[in-house]
Structures are given as structure tokens and as C-alpha cells.
Structure prediction request, 226 residues.
Amino acid sequence: DGGITQSPKYLFRKEGQNVTLSCEQNLNHDAMYWYRQDPGQGLRLIYYSQIVNDFQKGDIAEGYSVSREKKESFPLTVTSAQKNPTAFYLCASSGTWLLGTEAFFGQGTRLTVV
Amino acid sequence: RKEVEQDPGPFNVPEGATVAFNCTYSNSASQSFFWYRQDCRKEPKLLMSVYSSGNEDGRFTAQLNRASQYISLLIRDSKLSDSATYLCVVNIGGGGGNKLTFGTGTQLKVEL
Prediction:
């Protein structure tokens, strides 16, 4: 099945540890995104990538890092510099203008830092 | 000013009512527009794309007004199952590349 997969679904980490969230897609999409959602809030853009080996900061990039070494994969690292990392993290992908630009989401990762 | 703004609600409506949501965007270069639905603790899912000519899908109608920079979503004959948060999404494409920006969402509660 074509789709976008995030893992793990739930993640618990101790304060001060870096943690990497996985996002893989087999939709042949060029663009990929990471969003953060806090309870009762909207989605805020962390990083996005329009093509392999390129990515841009979103609105709340501080304390996060990404890489885009393969078209299918866009992992997000939550570093110890992120002051309040507990949140729901959503990864999405979208195609180019020719393929349509709506985004498809993974099921999300709920990160809890204790 | 936020790039995409929505009234957070909640909109509490009786079953069968018609309800409308608006969303404004600030970047006149925005190229494409969408409405997404998000259920509690789930990922957002595409409800419909929004075109200048307007589009309809069953009980749902979406409109785009480029001059005033807003999009709207109309839900007719609302059902209990329509209860969710509706997210307005704007894509600044073309020279700006694909950058999807979400509104904070409008919460809808349909009641008996």
C-alpha cells in the first residue's frame, strides 16, 4: 500500500536525551514536512524539505534537526535544546504541481519527555 | 498577522443545521488551498481542495475568494459524525516552493 509511515507511535524519553522520529513515504513525493501539535492547538511547522539534500526551517525550528538523504525518508531529531519537547509530532508529504499538492499525513508520534 | 487565520470556535450546532467556516490568508502569492478534517488525537485527513470556481462534494461546499484572500467551508445538514476540527491549509507554491501552512483549526460539535 502507498502511504506515509511514522514510528514509533508512542515514545518516552528522559529529559536531556536526543531522540529521532522516523518518517518514511512510498508515494514518490518530493516535499516532506514535520509539524508539531500541542493539546488543543493547531499544527506548527518545524522543518520542510522540497527535494533530496535540501530543507528549510519552519516557524519553530529551534531545538530540532532534520536530514533528507533519501527521497523516501525525512527523520526528525528532537535535541536536548528543545525546551518543551512533549507534543504530538506529525510528518506529511506532498507532490509537485504536476502531481497535486495536497498533503498526506502519517499517524503521528506522541513524544513524552519525563 | 498570522499567515492563516481561523476562528477557533467551538461551533456547537444541532444536527441538521448548516454551518459555515471562514479562513483568511495573508500571502497573496498562495497557490493552492485545502480543507482538512482532524479527529481527536488523530492525524489530519484531506476533506477537499478549494478552487476559484468553488467546488462541492455532497454536503460540503468550498469557496475561494482571491480578492479578499479568504476561503470558506459550508456544511449542510450536519451530522453527529461531522464533529471534528476543520483545518484550513494554504500552500505557497511556485517560486516559493511547496510550503503548507495550517490554520489553528475550527472545532465543530454537532449535537442531538
Remarks:
- Residues 20 and 45 of chain B are 19 Å apart (CA to CA).
- The first strand of chain B starts at residue 4 and ends at 6.
- The radius of gyration of chain B is 14 Å.
